[in-house]
Amino acid sequence: MANQDDSDDLGLAAAYAVSTPDDSRQLYARWAASYDDDFVDRNGYVYHLNVVEAFLADGGGPRGPILDVGCGTGVVGQAIRARGDQVIDGIDISPEMLARAAAKRTEDGQPIYRKLIEADLTTTLDLPTDHYHGVISTGTFTHGHLGPEPLAELIRIAAAGARFAIGVNGEHWRALAFDRWFEARVVEGLITEPTFHQVVVYEAMEGEHGDDRAMVARFTVR
Q1: What's the pLDDT tens digit per position in 151-204?
Q2: Which residues does 166 contact at the CB level (< 8 Å), separation at least 6?
Q3: Residue 136's closest CA among 37, 200, 40, 61?
Q4: By C-alpha distance, which of 141, 135, 93 is closest to 221?
Q5: What is the pLDDT of residue 6?
Q6: Which residue among 22, 107, 110, 183 is least crowded, i.e. fewest CB within 10 A of its CB?
């Protein structure tokens, strides 16, 4: 089990302290090279696997292209492709993390991602309306630097009937009013009534964040 003095925990502490897009760029530029080994593997990070399982169980499968939001080094895409032949694009603010995702391959040597996009989720995305048939996100709405507002743009680029599975840190769920945001979008007729369930984030971390939980919101675009 990891302890709080390990280098990955220093990255985690910095991640929970980010407050601006530039903070994110600087952090992940430093963290990209060691992220998979020093964070995902050493801490038993299973959040992405739990959200992927929920996404695929809800029919987020091969009906059309999927967008992996905040794809980082590509662990979500890797988990999805291990379960079937999906077309996945990834979007992230960090070019260094995207470079790691671009290097990932399926067992038969194919790139995990069809396309990788560098973008800031706090801005309007240069992506077509009604395009994606599935949207998944783990880790993006985690550190408190993003509220629910970027979800409106993700709904815009999703086709009618697109399935979403969005993970949100449990601590920020009510503090940043994600619950009220979803209620308002249902009233507006943009999405179906979401279902919510909690998942564990780590299975092998000690210390302050070892018992972290996340809320997974699952819904369909109308």
Answers
A1: 999 999 999 999 999 999 988 898 999 999 999 999 999 999 999 999 999 987
A2: 69, 135, 136, 137, 141, 151, 216, 217, 218
A3: 61
A4: 135
A5: 40
A6: 107
* Nearest alpha-carbon partner for 57 in 154, 199, 158, 165: 165
d(CA 11, CA 107): 30
Q: Phi/psi at 166 (nearest 5 deg)?
A: -120, 120
Sign of torsion, CA 67 72 78 80?
A: negative
CA–CA distances in Å: residue 180 to residues 42, 78, 111, 149: 36, 32, 38, 12
CB-based contacts of 156, cutoff 8 Å, min separation 6: 129
In this structure, which long-range contacts are made by residues 123-131, counting pairs with CB atoms below 8 Å and at least 24 apart in sequence?
124/153, 125/91, 125/153, 125/157, 127/157, 128/157, 129/156, 129/157, 130/157, 130/158, 130/159, 130/160, 131/65, 131/157, 131/158, 131/159
Number of other CB atoms surrounding residue 220 within 10 Å = 17
Phi and psi, residue 78, nearest 5°: -65, -40
Q: Residue 27: pLDDT above 90?
A: no
- Unique residue bearing structure tokens 């009220």: 180
Backbone angles phi, psi at 179, to 5 degrees: -60, -45
Q: Which tokens hold the place of 102?
A: 């671009």
Amino acid at 51: V
Decide: helix, strand or coil at residue 162.
strand
Instruction: Please write the tens of the pLDDT for every residue from 47-102.
Output: 999 999 999 998 877 679 999 999 999 999 999 999 988 999 999 999 999 999 99
Q: How far apart are CA 69 and CA 90, in angstroms?
A: 6
